[in-house]
Amino acid sequence: MSKRGRGGPGGAAALTLPVGERDHIAGPADAPVTLVEYGDYECPHCGHAYPIVKQVRQRMGRRMRFVYRNFPLRESHPHAQHAAEAAEAAGAQGEFWDMHDRLFERQFALDDAYLIEYAGDLGLDVARIRRELESRLYEPRVREDFRSGVASGVNGTPTFFINGVRYDESWEPAPLLAALRRAAAA
Amino acid sequence: MAARTTGPKRPLGPGSLAPDFTLSSTPDQTVALSAFRGRPVILAFYPADWSPVCGDQMALYNEALSEFQRYDAQLLGISVDGVWCHAAFAAARKLHFPLLADFEPKGAVSRRYGVYRTNDGFSERALFVIDGDGIIRWSYVSPVGVNPGADGILRALEALAGERAPT
By the CB < 8 Å criterion, does A155 face chain B? Predict the structure, then answer.
């Protein structure tokens, strides 16, 4: 998994847009470790990372908070942008994480009809989601995520940042957990 | 055999005049660097079409095009692959920027920028940001297996735009 660089000149790339109110954050605000993922719902590597992230979140418990930002590679993954907007639309109804999970668990079925179906399954206001997807209400927000990723040295998906510094090593469970524990102890 | 096109041993750095060139972008079209005078140009030399990391890098730049366009910058991808190879690669990846064929004499432009890997027969993974006057303002050579991302390019474009900002 390690074909990542140490960023441009000047060492490891750093998160240019700090984690804040705009973000989807799971975990306590005062956790010593913040793990940020830039991901794409249609990217197979992100699909592979999804259960790993779940696992390390469980292991880290209240010592870590997790932030997910969108980095849809639209030309490679034709459904990624809409899926990201659907997650944001679900977020507006307070169910970002349920939709996020559903999208990664159903990566193989992400066309618009399924996005609407998932919204229904989650008990969301389907008419509203449909309307918001059609009007592209969350496109700018997804773009803002993407833009912040490019500026921060995201060079593919998934890209992780631990306490604001790009994590370039393997994100298989053992090394990722070790890195998070080191950050917690620092 | 005629003398090979040679060039500097090290990648050209900031302040150097960017060597002009004309290369094929399609079987019947060419692109000249000088045609972009007045606008920033991003030259992205890469080893080869189809190799997995390049694919990632070019796919990333494809997605980041609108960010580059905010600075009115033109992105040009360059490798030693031929035009037909580039055409197939660009179509498969749905790339929306030109890929130039540094094909004959092989690697000549790459050599003039000091980023040709003679033993491998392909270019380094090297980035150059050139200003509107044709001067190199930033360059970076990434390890061949590493996708350098776009953050360095954006910082260089930002710095250029900052110089022109007081309008």
Answer: yes
Q: Are strands B136-142 and B125-130 parallel, antiparallel or unpaired?
A: antiparallel
Does the ipTM exceed 0.90? no
Q: Which residue has the tokens 């004309």?
A: B22
Cβ neighbours of B57 in A, within 8 Å: 155
Q: How many CB atoms lie within 10 A of CB B106?
A: 16
User: What residue type is B60 in one-letter code?
Assistant: L
- Among all residues of B, which ones are annotated catalytic? 54
Can you tell me the distance from the alpha carbon of B21 to that of B31, in angstroms, rounded to the nearest whole number? 8
- Nearest CA to B18 among B126, B128, B136? B136
> Residue B100 is encoded by which pair of tokens?
């130039």
pLDDT tens-digit readout, B14-33 = 999 999 999 999 999 999 99
Rounded to the nearest 10 degrees, what angle do helices A44-60 and A173-185 cross at?
50
The set of long-range contacts for A125-128, using a CB threshold of 8 Å and a minimum separation of 24, is A125/A93, A128/A89, A128/A93
Backbone angles phi, psi at B137, to 5 degrees: -110, -20
Mean pLDDT in residue range B105-121: 97
CA distance B83 to B89: 10
Q: How far is CA B94 from CA B73, B88, B153, in A?
A: 20, 10, 22
For A10, the closest chain B residue by CA position comes to B152
Q: Is B155 on the interface with A (CB under 8 A)?
A: yes
State whether the Cα torsion A71-A77-A78-A82 is positive or negative.
negative
